[in-house]
Design brief:
By secondary structure, this protein is of the alpha+beta class. The chain has one domain. Helix content is 45%, strand content 15%. It is built from six helices and three strands. The protein has a three-stranded antiparallel sheet with strand order 1-2-3. The protein is globular.
């Protein structure tokens, strides 16, 4: 899969990204430094810039910078709010 294929797939199955213009998603990918190699997506944590990688199948279900943060930037579950 290439970057264009990833973006098309991401927008097809993710309703949040489907509602955004293609240019917005392209800029978001650029800001994250998204790259595709086979079935892996590499990108940078949007908060600290740490290199990260996940499977394509995982990446396409994520649609916000907070979901793409590294574990250190997410903090402890009790610091994140939401269900405990």
């Amino acid at each position: 899969m290439d970057l264009e294929g990833l973006m098309a797939h991401h927008r097809q199955i993710n309703p949040v990204l489907a509602a955004r213009r293609e240019e917005e998603v392209t800029l978001w990918y650029a800001d994250l430094g998204v790259e595709v190699l086979d079935e892996m997506v590499s990108y940078q944590c949007p908060r600290c810039g740490r290199p990260l990688a996940v499977l394509v199948d995982e990446f396409v279900h994520l649609d916000s910078n907070s979901e793409l943060r590294c574990d250190e930037c997410r903090g402890f579950p009790e610091e994140r709010g939401g269900p405990g």
